[in-house]
Amino acid sequence: MTGPVIHTYRAAEAGLCVNSYLVEAESGVVVIDTNLLVSDIAALRARLAALKKPLLAILVTHAHPDHFNGVLDLVRDREVPVYGPEWPAETYYPNSVLADGEQVKLDELTFTVRDLGPGESHADSYFLLAADRAPVAFTGDVAFNGTHPYTADGHSSSWLALLDVLDAELAGARRLYPGHGDPAGPGVLAEQRRYLLFYREVVRRLSGGEPRLTAAAQEELETMMRAFLPGAPLTWMIGLGAAAVAAELATVKILIIPNEP
User: Fold this and answer.
1) Which of the chain's termini has less CB crowding within 10 Å, N or C?
2) Taking a C-beta distance cutoff of 8 angstroms, is the pair 73, 46 a contact?
3) Within a domain: residue 257?
4) CATH number at residue 221
């Protein structure tokens, strides 16, 4: 093995199409994000076992359950909400909080964490893996690739701001491994920005400055976003975030400065 090998496990749409990554090195494996549903967590654990190498660490990009639900099942053996029996009976939370810019050395693998603050979630981050040719980045949900994103945490404005920062910061990355969708080049950040700008503009128009959308307005929003990203999965997320984004936009103050006499 001349360098780390990155294996991807992706859930079906019922599991939000979420990605988990197994970074395989000579001496062991680092898992990045751990999936949502029991069946997907079991499949991920089987993939890990098939590599026949020790688990060196689990890195979690942000605190949404589709990224941390499987942690407990990966770190120890063991023999419900809306997902019923598909939701793990127990979970396990990270026990080491990393500071912005901190490096984690796991045998021959070196990851650097970037704390981004609120964006898709209340606290986003990504992990940069040093590599021979160019670094690769595990970006969590900073940019969804080819799926409708989750906007219900109501931070679309700060999300746009951090995408502007990352556009320059990750320009030299060889590959971005997103939380949802296929690995891609840094251009996926610009595509996410386009989606958010369009979504916000449609919500702004349909809400009329109110912190919510009517049922008819929400239906129109869903129609327009389906047309914007035709054939993309997770369409139910379009309406899920409508009220949060409308409320966010309703707080924006527009100041009009009169002309001097």
Assistant:
1) C
2) no
3) no
4) 3.60.15.10
Interatomic CA distance for residues 250 and 246, integer angstroms: 6
Q: Does 255 reside within a domain?
A: no
Among the listed residues 87, 104, 95, 96, the one whose alpha carbon sits nearest the alpha carbon of residue 35: 87
Domain contains 97: no
> Which is nearest to 115 in space by CA: 106, 127, 105?
127
Task: Name the phi and psi angles at 96, rounded to 5.
Answer: -135, 115
Residue pair 135/129 in contact by the 8 Å Cβ criterion: yes
Host domain of residue 226:
5-91+103-250
- Written as six digits, the tokens of 16 are 């939000």
96 lies in a domain? no
pLDDT per residue as tens, the chain (261 positions):
778 999 999 999 999 999 999 999 999 999 999 999 999 999 999 999 999 999 999 999 999 999 999 998 998 653 345 567 887 877 776 778 899 999 999 999 999 999 999 999 999 999 999 987 889 999 999 999 999 999 999 999 999 999 999 999 999 999 999 999 999 999 999 999 999 999 999 999 999 999 999 999 999 999 999 999 999 999 999 999 999 999 999 986 554 556 655
Q: In total, how many domains does the chain have?
A: 1
